[in-house]
Amino acid sequence: MAGDSKTDATWPNSWPSDLDAAVNVEEETGWTHFNIGISGATVASFLAVIDDKIAEIDDPENTKKILINFGVNDQASIDFDNAGEVAVWVSDYESLIDQLATVCPNADFYLSRPWARIGTEWNQIAAAIGTIVSDRPLIAHLGDDERVWLEGGDDGATMTTDGTHYSAAGQAEKTAQMMTVLGY
Hints:
The two termini are 17 Å apart. The radius of gyration is 15 Å and the shape is globular. Helix 1 (15-27) crosses helix 7 and helix 4 packs across helix 5. The protein contains 7 helices and 4 strands; from the N terminus they run E-H-H-H-E-H-E-H-E-H-H. The protein is of the alpha/beta class.
């Protein structure tokens, strides 16, 4: 897993360990995961430290699926109505995937489409993520869509604690969403 505070293991997130437990029950194998999330990260700031983060990945040759969740912090610094800024963001995101793919050559990437109560760029960010998936069709796939389940028709009141980070209900739903994305 790679991403911002929604993925960062040091944030009070239970869904990464809940997902681990659920997949282990499904597969009954030695499923293990790594978490290289960084609270507050943007795609560009993560890309700047990617070599250090890659060094934290155990058994990269056997890594099969990587979940990525970026965009919430980017919406504050990128004008997603500006084609030039979007192109740079897409290029950085693709570079991040390419660098991870070099180290984890057998991995497929699942990109979450983020949502938070702040900002209005979620459809533009989802479109940019669609571009990334189109540009990397053999390895990049659409992940969960937080614009649907996290927003939940109540502006995130049920699924978030603060309009961004997952509540207990959101943690459980994120696990369920990822199980579906991963084909379980």
